[in-house]
Design brief:
alpha+beta; Aspartate Aminotransferase, domain 1; six-stranded antiparallel sheet; YjbR/MT2646/Rv2570-like; Phosphoribosylglycinamide formyltransferase; YjbR-like_sf
């Protein structure tokens, strides 16, 4: 049974996340688990998610979830805008909740870029860097 669709095209921040994510080489959008996921073979970003940080499952509808380098994880977790996503958190992902503060789209672009570089094939990263 497929997951129900858990977003609307006019959700706050979705258009901006799409524009950023789809700007990377060979990036495509697919609905995964009812949410927009952005892939370059592997997923590097997702709009919307959930967390279990408070002990019970909670939806975080307006966010971007990205894979983060372990060296950045502690610093990002110190910022209360970030959360550990349910399911993806143990694999090195964090979420940035758009409803916790004004969104800095330059920061979002940098986070998505770093996530892309962690999961994309070397040839795609080289293409991104103009190599």
């Amino acid at each position: 049974m497929p997951h129900p669709i858990m977003f609307r095209d006019d959700d706050p921040g979705l258009a901006e996340v799409r524009e950023i994510a789809l700007g990377f080489p060979e990036a495509v959008e697919k609905v995964s688990h009812g949410r927009p996921g952005f892939f370059a073979s592997k997923m590097f970003a997702m709009y919307g998610g959930s967390t279990r940080e408070s002990g019970s499952m909670a939806t975080v509808p307006h966010c971007v979830m990205i894979k983060v380098d372990e060296s950045d994880r502690t610093a990002l977790r110190a910022d209360d805008r970030f959360f550990v996503p349910a399911y993806l958190g143990p694999s090195g992902w964090l979420g940035l909740d758009f409803d916790r503060a004004e969104v800095d789209w330059t920061e979002v672009r940098e986070l998505v870029d770093a996530s892309y570089r962690l999961v994309a094939a070397r040839r795609l990263v080289d293409q991104l860097d103009g190599v």
